[in-house]
Give the backbone structure.
Amino acid sequence: MRFNEKELISLSRQPSERAAELGMRGPKKGDGTVVVKKKLVKLVVNFLFYFRTDEEEPQGALLLEQCRVEREDSLVFSIAFLDEAERKYLFECDSQEQCQEWVDSIIKASYEFMRKNLIFYRTEIHRLTGKDPLEQYGIEDETRFQVTSGLQPVQKDN
Amino acid sequence: MKIHEKILTHYLSCTSPVDKEGYLYKKKERTSSYQRRWFVLKANLLFYQERPADRHLLGVIVLEGCAIQHCESEGGLFAFSVVFRGSGLKTYRLAAENQLGQECWVKALLTASHCYLALLVRDLGKQYEAEAKRQAGPGESSQHSSVTGQSSEGLTQSMVSLNSCSSSFFMSVPVRTEGGNHRGSHVLQAPPMPSKVTSKRSPKLWPKRNAHVTPINGPVSAYGEWPQVDIDPLEDFTKLHEYYGEEVKQLRAEWLKRRQEGENYLEKDLIDLSEH
């Protein structure tokens, strides 16, 4: 599958609120051991980039949608993608606070999470004021902001 | 760089909403020929494949750090570009079969970025809190103007920072301006001078309500700071909002009318049942 790699790499270089060296756990080896490698992990929009130490270009990018973020223990959080129930990405932090901050940030970074919030605010503001707050921006008809959007798939070609 | 394709393909096929889909023409990079592809826009991701039923995805375009531009019509197609800012970065040339399709896609792509949504949510969050606060204390009418002043400030400041947001819109064809009078209806003009902006009060005065408002439950979960992406502001923000202004409402009304006529026409072709 093709993707705009250069542009995504450029995105990974943008300043981000949350970037730190975390221990990324590799898959379990045959003998049961797990290798933890220190990576620079960077949260930019709804992507989690991870870099090998001292490398300019990210090693990989994880789209933070349709995933479950959990505290595994005091210092470790995991991201599990709902497609591959087996594959959980585990990250080791330096402190409990850091761990919790990462969990919170990743959850809030999801586009779908933000969309739900938008729909909540739109609905509430409309309820409180009788006015649709998106009208002032001329985007009230956009499919992506519709009240039903957060709940179910929308029909084609709106 | 590894992009973990399975995560992307799963997101595409899952039940979260599709923001737009349809056929568009995509120009091949080397040649100048257009290829018809089925595009699916979800969040800030534009997927494309040969046909809607295909399981095989040809590719995806991550829509961050790009501008959407109208282009000259080519070969009867209504073209537009997705232009990524930065040296050595790509421009995707796309085209729709008709002008309505072009306008709808352009608008959908303009509002697609994560950055844009983040700012919009922040704005609405402020509006919501200001409104909730206001309604919690109906007797405090003296605070009314300061609250709206705050919310309009917050609005304009947030929308000024939209200037640094990834999506923007350049008109190569001049916009049909009606003496610029549509500016006045919006607080969100974001002129370059911040002092000018903050002196404006919101033109929208919320009607007073009784305070029988149910306790305010927060949104999905309490939110603190949104992740921010700082991208160099290069776009003319006022142009973006001119596009989103009254002008567009009129155009859209026309499109919808034309579209309805077009849909009726299509239905007549496809469906033999008599209409009620």
